[in-house]
Sequence to fold (197 residues):
Amino acid sequence: MKTVSVVLRRTALVLTAVFVCGGLLFALGYAFEDSGGGAAVLLAAAVVVPLAALTVLAALRRPIALRVLAVAVGLYVVWGVLTLFVDLVDAPDLPIIALVLALPIAVVGLTYALRAGALLVVVAAVPFLSVASILVRESGHEGPGLGDLFGGSTGVVVIPLLVLAALLLLAGALDRGAAEPGSQQPEPQPPKAVAPR
Fold:
């Protein structure tokens, strides 16, 4: 079980890194194409600096990083709720923030798989609720379909993040199962010495 858990953790980390790098390169490519110049460089720095800082913190100080990421995810939830009522930024902010948070969470998942998986579920829930609110608000014949919404920049992060969260949750569950009494063979005890008569 321990080997399977380690493989799941590492697989989740590698897949998350590929997904995050690909997604951010795609998004930043559009930013450089649309705005170009100094604005695009500032946007790239606003994405890359927190991503690098959180990932390095997660690699070096996982207990502290877990707390920092829990606070960051809480702030992300607040931001996501605010965007349901007010259009704060004219950019795909929810998927970008989700990608920035996903990689350090996966790094923390190498040690705290269950907690990291739960954080990733929350991170995936924010864009899902955004997509669901658009679907409810614009329902009707002219409104976008479910496939259109999940194919957009916000919806496209939901399913991969849920799959990655499932890998970490499964790894954490396997660790818990191995730690429960009765799930492992008891260690053999040395024979008791017999006192001479």
The CA atoms of residues 61 and 127 lie 28 Å apart.
